[in-house]
Amino acid sequence: MKIRIKNNGLRYRLTRSEVAAFAREGIFQEKVHIGDDALTYVLQRTPGSLLSASFKNNIITVLVPETVANEWTGTDQVGFEHKTDALHLLVEKDFTCLDNVDEDQSDNYPNPLAASRS
C-alpha cells in the first residue's frame, strides 16, 4: 500500500493482492521505519457510515464503511473519497504506470489508458 500526504490530503493506493487481503480481513496495514521510530498506516473496515481518519501514536487509520468497502473490493470501482474543510481522503486501486519506472508493478491493476498509448 502506498501512502501520499500532501497539504490536507491523504491518499492510499492498493495493489490487487492488498485489496484482496483487505476484502478478506477487513484491515490492511503497512509500516515504514524512520530512524528509531515507525509510522504505521492502516485501512480498516468499520460499521460506521462515513469515511474518516485518525492519527494517534504514530498510526494513521482510515476507516472505511462496510458498504463502501464491499462495493470497492467487489467491483471495478477505482476508488472512493471524502472531503471536508479539514481533510481530503482518497483510497484507490493502484494502476500500472504508463511511464517506465524502477518498481515492481506485477501486482498492480492494468492501466485502462495503456491501450490508447500503444
Give me the secondary-structure topology.
Blueprint: E1 2-6, E2 9-14, H1 16-25, E3 27-34, E4 37-46, E5 52-56, E6 59-65, H2 66-74, E7 79-83, E8 88-93
Parallel strand pairs: 2-8, 4-6
Antiparallel strand pairs: 1-2, 3-4, 5-6, 7-8
Order of helices and strands: EEHEEEEHEE
Indicate the proportion of strand residues: 35-45%
CATH architecture term: 2-Layer Sandwich
Strand order of the largest sheet: 1-2-8-7
- At CATH level 3, the topology is Gyrase A, domain 2
Derived from helix and strand composition plus strand pairing, the structural class reads alpha/beta
Radius of gyration: 15 Å
> What is the CATH top level name?
Alpha Beta
Mean pLDDT: 90
**What would you call the shape?**
globular
User: Helical amount among residues, as a percent range?
Assistant: 10-25%
Q: What's the number of helices?
A: 2
pLDDT under 50 segments (min length 5)?
none
Largest sheet: 4 strands, mixed
For the record, the count of structural domains works out to 1
β-strand number: 8
Distance between the termini: 28 Å
In short, what is this structure?
This protein is of the alpha/beta class. It has two helices and eight strands.
List keywords for this structure.
118 residues; alpha/beta; Gyrase A, domain 2; four-stranded mixed beta sheet; 44% strand
Would you kindly provide a written description of the structure presented here, covering whatever features stand out?
By secondary structure, the chain is of the alpha/beta class. The chain has a single domain (2-96), classed as Gyrase A, domain 2 (2-Layer Sandwich). The protein contains 2 helices and 8 strands. The protein has helices at 16-25, 66-74; strands at residues 2-6, 9-14, 27-34, 37-46, 52-56, 59-65, 79-83, 88-93. Helix 1 crosses helix 2. The radius of gyration is 15 Å and the shape is globular.
